[in-house]
Amino acid sequence: LRWAIEKIPGTFNAFQQDADEATTRVTEAVLPSLFTLDSRGRPHRNPDYLLSAEVTGREPRQVVVYRINPKAVWTDGRPITPADFIAQWKALSGADPSYRPAGNDGYRQIQKVERGSTRGEVKVTFSRPFADWRMLFTPLYPKSATGTAEAFNEDTRGRLPATAGPFRMAAVDRRGSDRFVLLVRNSRWWGKRAVLDRIVLTQVPHGRRVAALRANAVDVAAIEPAASAVRTAASVPGFTVRKGFDAAFTQLTL
């Protein structure tokens, strides 16, 4: 699937200030999302990564316990463990000024993150109640990406040391005539097999997308919802126009 994006991400770290929509496209495909949203915006536990996640205490502190799916592994073969949660919390908590996240809301409310009663259990204790705890640790990065300030601030801009999604990053071309990020099936993926063999996120500015669709250079592109543009794109043989979740855009698919 060739999917048009505005530009190649300047970073693959979703927690940096210059992360953008293309960053999100990549991280949603290659990194753990502990909770996903349904059509009404309600969060649901992702069983590919979590066997359970629940509030186990409220007094004197709110405590949330996550049980990691034992099948969940990073592409380097290492299991997802509490150490990944601990490293991400430390990077985003604001306690260490050498880390430069875009924000730390939620993480700064955490008093401590530790291993629970088993290797696959994560115990998160909050300093004060935090109702939106399900939004935390998504995406989840490996400790190799968050364990040091250099890795978090610099290394994750150009690459990810390990991933754990249905896809993995195979190539990034920032300088060629056809700039793209290539995602391919993750051979270590333990969940339901991805339908697509590969996703090519191709740099196509908004003003060139109708022409790219007409030339069969991309398969999916979000375009400005001007009636003339939609009519033009809809005339391409083999394409259908359908409303996306965002009313500001129209999504075209083969």
Description:
The structure is a single chain. This protein has helices at 21-30, 82-92, 143-146, 149-158, 209-214, 227-234, and strands at residues 2-5, 35-37, 43-45, 50-57, 63-68, 110-115, 121-126, 167-173, 180-185, 198-203, 221-223, 240-243, 250-253. The protein is of the alpha+beta class and 254 residues long. A hairpin with a 5-residue loop joins β6 and β7. The longest helix has 11 residues, at 82-92. Residues 226-233 and 239-254 have low confidence and may be disordered.
- Report the major sheet: 4 strands, mixed
Helix amount: 10-25%
Uncertain residue segments: 226-233, 239-254
Summed up, the helix count is 6
* Spatial strand sequence of the major β-sheet: 1-10-9-8
Mean pLDDT: 89
Give the percentage of residues in beta strands: 25-35%
Find the count of extended strands (DSSP E, 2+ residues): 13
Tell me the span between the first and last alpha carbons.
Answer: 9 Å
Strand and helix order: EHEEEEHEEHHEEEHEHEE
Give me some keywords for this one:
254 residues, disordered C terminus, four-stranded mixed beta sheet, 26% strand, 6 helices, globular, 19% helix, four-stranded antiparallel beta sheet, alpha+beta
Describe what is shown at a glance.
The chain is of the alpha+beta class and 254 residues long. 19% of the residues lie in helices and 26% in strands. Strand 2 and strand 3 form a beta hairpin.
